[in-house]
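Contributing new complexes? Match this layout with pyridoxal-5'-phosphate.
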Amino acid sequence: MDDTGLKRLLEKADQYLTGGCLGSFRMPDEVATVFHRGEGSKIYDVTGREYIDFVLGSGPMILGHAHRDVVSAVQAQVSRGSTFYGLNEPIIHLAERVVEASPCGEAIRFNSSGTEGTFSALRMARAFTSKEKILKFEGGWHGAHDYAQQSTTPPEPTDSPIAVADSHGIPRVVGQTVLISPFNDPDTATDLISSYAGDLAAVIVEPFQRSLTPEPGFLEALREATQANGVILIYDEVVTGFRIAWGGAQEKYGVIPDLAVYGKTISGGYPLAAICGRAEILACADPRRKSKAPYTFVSGTTNGNPVSATAGLATIDILAKDGVYEQLYEIPGRLKVGLEAIGRELGLPLQLIGEGPVLQPFFYDGEIRTYSDTLKADSNAARQLGIEMIKRNIFFNINGKLYFSLAHTEQDIDLTLDVAKEALKQVEMGVDG
Ligand SMILES: Cc1ncc(COP(=O)(O)O)c(C=O)c1O
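Output block (do not edit by hand):
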């Protein structure tokens, strides 16, 4: 297709798709495109233009695009049927795989998205404890539901513990059941946990929050205070599970929650997520319990979909191989070192923070350990970097995280660094976006 064809498609998208996009991610007009296919570390738009992809479908494509093993497993499954509602072999094998890999794993319930996973985990925690409030962290992301969309991206630091809704249309009463605490501040969190112990059902946390690593002692303090106060600790491992280590954040940081929610990496790029953890809490969702308390409804038409399960299994089989996690740390490390060096050369305060295959560029010369710190960074400069990279065929998130896959090569990184030198020359600090 030529550029005129692309322009027509984009016009049609603007005409029929709300916002001309699929969700919160609308590509800036100067780099807007329509994707056609992906292969390994690359994606291609409808004009045939090739990009090195650091977005990876917002995380699921940890093997890279169209991995041979995933494609052939999915093709074989699709020819046997797409969904049955009832038990099927792939989902039972995936259940075993995830429960055995998850340090808190005893039982599991699948559903179709990370949003459903965190929503259901919170509901189970409420049912199990007979309490209503939850505590989440400022800047923490748990999906689209009303409890999650509280103080995820507040423009100003939150007045803890008061939650600020991120979207209109959320009943105020929902926000009144959500307490907000700053990430990496164990004292505030543990004070809130003990003060609200009688009402608090759960603490939900991304143990590695967006691109913020937990400081030593933070997760330990959450574990101790939740255990002491009869509160369920939920890890949102939608990003971290099977990515920052085989056993996810639980293995990486050595602190084990009661429940862990998985998504992205276990899905192989198809709709799939799971709540995994202590069997007595998961038992709330046993349909044989329906007329007895505590019972939690957690169900859906495509829960345990065999195609998604097959893709997830094929992905996890590759992640189980020797040397995978070394590679997932080494390649991104090269990009971090290289980009920061170019930043220094050009007099820009560029730093990449994160963990292994998840990094985020910030233009800020101070330490970044909380969501409030991220607000001090020059977000317009980060946005400009994203746009300038996409213009040069490197698909960067616009002011967001970069994801790395097993398909990224040293050559991809070298090429990205060459391009970044030119892109960064276009970045101006202190300009309002
Ligand atoms: C940590 C985390 N939790 C939950 C979600 C929600 O997952 P989904 O988009 O599949 O609903 C996301 C999505 O980006 C996420 O990053």
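Reviewers usually confirm one structural detail per submission. For this one: The CA atoms of residues 151 and 164 lie 5 Å apart.
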